[in-house]
């Protein structure tokens, strides 16, 4: 594990398998990006508002963005607030599952 990595991460394929359950999934992209197509279970909390997120700290929070950069930052901030955070590597760029919204 590299020194700059601080937490857990999953692939988009791993995430797709988790969606069968009841999970906390936070999409930290802008509202415009979110409306352009998102995962049905995802709640949009843009990165600049991530510290206002009020989720269950007992259950893991999966964080996704477009490529994985913003979700890493959001994961770091949520972890500091006491959440169990799992970053989705590759973000929506790697997501092959169904999307809601967009064209």
UniProtKB/TrEMBL annotation:
Species assigned in the record: Candidatus Enterococcus mangumiae
Pfam families (alphabetical): Rhodanese (PF00581)
Entries under CDD domains matching the protein: RHOD (cd00158)
Domain Rhodanese intervals: 19-99
Highest taxon of the lineage: Bacteria
Listed name of the protein: Rhodanese domain-containing protein
